[in-house]
Amino acid sequence: MRIKAIFFVSMIFSFIFLFCGCGTIPLRTPLPEQFGDTARIKDIPRARFWGDQSPPFLNAVIGQPREKVMEKFPGIFGKEHHYLALSGGGANGAFGAGMMVGWSATGTRPTFSLVTGISTGALMSTFVFLGTAYDQQLKEMYTTYSTKDLVIKRSILDAITGISATDTAPLRAMLAKYINKEVMDEVAAEYKKGRRLYVGTTHLDAKRPVVWDIGIIASSGRPEALDLIHKIILASASIPAAFPPVLIEVEANGKTYDEMHVDGGTISQVFLYPTGLRWKQILTKFEVPGKPKAYVVRNSFLEPDWETVKPKILPIAGISINSLIRTQGIGDMYRIYLDCQRDGIDFNLAYIPEDFDVRPEEEFDPVYMSKLFDLGYNLAKDGYPWEKAPPGFE
Asked: Whole-prediction pTM value?
């Protein structure tokens, strides 16, 4: 059975909240709908953009003089481009982490011009973005932590009257341990070269995807920048109902409000760039030689597994949401593939092979994750056979 217990728990409490009317966060100052498009992070106006529409300031690059583009993007102008999209998948993120470390062992892992991450992909994205020097951190994160090291399970009563089934204080502490000021400063330095690190969350009030530019936040000089980065990554991995949502302060119309953000996988399992972005024109503007390569790592299986379902509401609900997540992820891969075909980008796909039959004993089982990490490592070290198209497009 490949259903992740944490998704099953999430669905259970979603039903509890639905019928009990509980689970609100006290003392919210929610952003009014009329300011949805104008709200900004204080002193960092371009910290994020809607993930379902083309950001005007990125398309504006097309109209800038060549000299200005060279000055703003010195590390990627006139050079080969490699892009990496890291998907959600919970504990299955150990596969992607292992792949990155194994790829490093071959000596051929590129410096990515763009790295994107959602959920567990967001957790590892910073270290993948910074390169092979952070492989040890990746391995530690995905092989040494168990469920109790990451979340505190609430009692049934606390869960019913609260906002989630767990408390993510340990996960927040882990983020603070690994992503410190030194790491943030390195991200800022790479941002100034023109490289980009994007993390996706779901703006729950708006029911829309948000893409956060971690590099511009890191280089903002704001004293709260590091805390904001922690909040964004935590939000991206915060499975609704299972994990508490994250409130992020914004400014609009001269006042301070909050937005509620949760797991980016609520809307999309993996993303590369907004479909409406004129990427082919951007490539021309950057004078990119050859054909850019996009690598999509799907931290999941692609094929469904057969399971006899008990005729009860909770098993039916749990398996249904698991099916939705799987097919949503496949749809995301199709979309990225078609965008790459349109924009002249070489598409490459990796995912957990079907013959991996180890099963976890808990939501975050270090034994399971270590074996999955080793699988990803060995596949990449031996030269991963990247798929050139999603299933059905060969």
From this structure: 0.91
